[in-house]
Amino acid sequence: MSPVGIFFSGVAFLGIAAALLLQGRELRNQREELAIARQEQIRSSELAMRQLHTDLIKMAIEDSELRSVWPAPAPGHETTRKDHYCNLILNLQKVAYETGTIELQELRSALRFLMTSPDMRSFWTRSRTARVSVTADDEAEDTFTAEVDAAYAATIAP
């Protein structure tokens, strides 16, 4: 084999190796992009579900017949418009925190402020147990519940 042939064989081999390295890098980038897209799709689905939940609660606030469909927050208590409104306010804080709109310290401050409301304290007192039973073993819900509990405990009832 001539030196020119060996040279071109070597260059061809290096070209193939470089192409394989570039393809591998491109595949890794595509996997990362797919993972990001999947996470965004999950977040979008969660937000859509939360919006549906919000819409349902709004309907119950506006219509007493629909409000009666929701279970009572605690035995012996009727579900009121204020209960649904308090639920919406707490869900707003949770979504704001989970989407990164507010930081943990802002969430804590907001919850402490909210717990100065007699209606909010009453709602949390009555609904906490039922809420926890529905969201058991959901890490995000457990974290949020712990934050609301801490704000409730740290705030002096008016």
From TrEMBL:
Residues annotated as transmembrane:
6-22
User: Which keywords belong to this entry?
Assistant: Membrane, Transmembrane, Transmembrane helix
- InterPro entries to which the protein is assigned, alphabetical: DUF6082
Alphabetical list of Pfam families matching this protein = DUF6082
Entry protein name: Secreted protein
